[in-house]
Amino acid sequence: MAKIKLEYLWLDGYFPTQNLRSKTKVEEHEDFKGTLEELGNWSFDGSSTRQAEGGSSDCLLVPVAIYPDPDRKDGYLVMTEVMNADGTPHVSNGRATIDDEDDDFWFGFEQEYFIMDTETQLPLGFPVGGYPAPQGMYYCSVGGKNTHGRHLVEEHADQCIAAGLNFEGINQEVACGQWEFQLFAKGAKKAGDEIWVSRYLLQRLTEKYGYYIEYHPKPLGKDMDWNGSGMHANFSNTTLRTCGSKETYEKICEAFRPVVDEHIAVYGEFNDQRLTGDHETAAITDFSYGVSDRGASIRIPLITVEKGYKGWLEDRRPASNGDPYKIAARIIKTVKSADV
User: I need a surface site. Which of 69, 82, 261, 293 has the fewest CB within 10 A?
Assistant: First the structure.
């Protein structure tokens, strides 16, 4: 019999920005295969995570995905959903709101973030009491003058790949100390699972470097001339992938126009500080779409047009601190409402 370490991950009840929580269960298995079927439910004290009252504090953790833990011997990362004691989804459970049982929707998320120094409370590359050179030379840069934190970013990429996530790339972003990684999955729930697991791996790595990750969409202040952080959502379904119709694409885009407020409500806290109409964003009060337009709410990628309107759309409004489950759920609802 071998002992294995199962790290159960879940989202807490803080609102509107939830946090990752985790705890380890050590179990004995004779021949563990790393499958969901071998896992049992667990529970936690919801009164400590804003998910229950002290007099009835147990919440259930139901496993939904499992990945090898690249940093632990005989370890696994277990993504879970939070359920009430009666087995119904907890109000904090955004995953349960996704209407994509047949995995028809594919999502590619572009997760931007800042790497922060715990001592200075500033992004890497920022001097105490001042500012680095203006943005322009940081995007996709190389070399110690403009590139900060590559060691962490590379290690994170390796860990995500070792965990079996469909990790698609990394790059330094426009602001100093700002980076991005990309993940893609066929199925909205799977896409959300992998973003949360990749965030966990990134945040856990910072513990040994004296850093922390800042997902605030405008951590340097809303009036500062620095790009904010988003989590652009690239999405498609069978219709978008195969229709070959500009009219259909425009109808789907137009379906987003009357529900701007509903989307912004789940696209991340403090997003009004980022969606100003500057720094490659559309204004939070506006709605627009256009081919290859990074200043629009929704971008129709040029490659989609070149393939005869067979491809995907990119919603550029979600903030870096948004919940991919809630973002995907809202996008799916709107796309399904389109008259196509």
Answer: 261
pLDDT < 70 regions, the chain: none
Q: What is the pTM assigned to this prediction?
A: 0.97
Which pLDDT score is estimated for 223? 76
pLDDT for res 225? 82
b/e burial code for range 287-320 (CB count within 10 A of at least 16 → b): bebeeebeebbbbbeeebeeeebbbbbbbbbbbb
Topology of domain 106-337, CATH: Creatine Kinase; Chain A, domain 2 (3.30.590)
Distance, in Å, from the CA atom of 124 to the CA atom of 110, rounded to the nearest integer, reads 20
Among 57, 56, 60, 40, CA closest to 48: 57
Whether the bond into 16 is cis, omega within 30 of 0? yes
Instruction: List all residues 6 or more positions away from 179 whose beta carbon is below 8 Å from its beta carbon.
Output: 112, 113, 114, 115, 149, 153, 170, 171, 172, 173
